Amino acid sequence: MGQCCCKKRKDSQELTNVEQAIETVINQFHCYAVQGRKEYLTPNELKELVGQKLPHLGNCVGPLEEKIECLGDPNEARVEFGEYWDIMGDAAKCCQK
Amino acid sequence: MGQCCCKKRKDSQELTNVEQAIETVINQFHCYAVQGRKEYLTPNELKELVGQKLPHLGNCVGPLEEKIECLGDPNEARVEFGEYWDIMGDAAKCCQK
């Protein structure tokens, strides 16, 4: 799960590097949001995404895992795109210093 | 301004695609945050980044420009990394639907 290579919605050649980067982060949400049919992730799916796709942000991921624990039932709670983006932002803030 | 190619802090080959994407978004902040010496962007610098780096998110950028107007003095106000990440998230939310 989550290994699928999501089809890019736009022809990625024209996109700028920042647009491609944003699209990559969006695509991963859609790749892992299986139970939520691309609408939301479960905490377990988010944890899998973070574990597989953010292996080098370990020191930042620690607090992320605590955050994921607080999201509610690992299989039932819903993590919408905005929350997912905020969590990616936590990792980014941690490693941009 | 902002055309500089920021040196990647990590050897990008080992990073996953999501980590590279996050790093790209971080690097752009540092590239454009000239006045704030990588600590913050001015609204003008943010507007330049959005104009140059998010050309295809025009329909999402509209509201972004209004948001940038509300940030305060175009040359004096400070846009910290967290706010910048949130604004990139607005563009992402708009185009991930």
Give an overview of the whole structure.
Residues 1-10 of chain A have low confidence and may be disordered. Chain A has a single domain (17-95), classed as Orthogonal Bundle (Recoverin, domain 1). Chain A has 97 residues and is mostly helical. Chain A is built from 4 helices and no strands. Helix content of chain A is 56%, strand content 0%. Chain A starts with 16 loop residues before the first helix and ends with a helix. The interface between A and B is medium-sized, with 35 and 35 residues.
Strand content of chain A: under 5%
Multimeric status of the protein: homodimer
* Proportion of residues in helical segments of chain A: 55-70%
The helix/strand series of chain A, from N terminus to C terminus, equals HHHH
| Uncertain regions spanning at least 5 consecutive residues of chain A | 1-10
CATH architecture annotation of chain A: Orthogonal Bundle
User: What fold name goes in the CATH topology slot of chain A?
Assistant: Recoverin, domain 1
User: Which chains have the largest interface?
Assistant: A-B, 35 and 35 residues
Mean pLDDT of chain A: 82
**What is the CATH H-level superfamily of chain A?**
EF-hand
Q: What structural category do the secondary elements of chain A indicate?
A: mainly alpha
The number of strands of chain A is 0
List the helices and strands and how they pair.
The structure is a homodimer of 97-residue chains.
Chain A lengths: L16 H16 L10 H11 L4 H12 L11 H15 L2
Helix pairs in contact in A: 2-3, 3-4
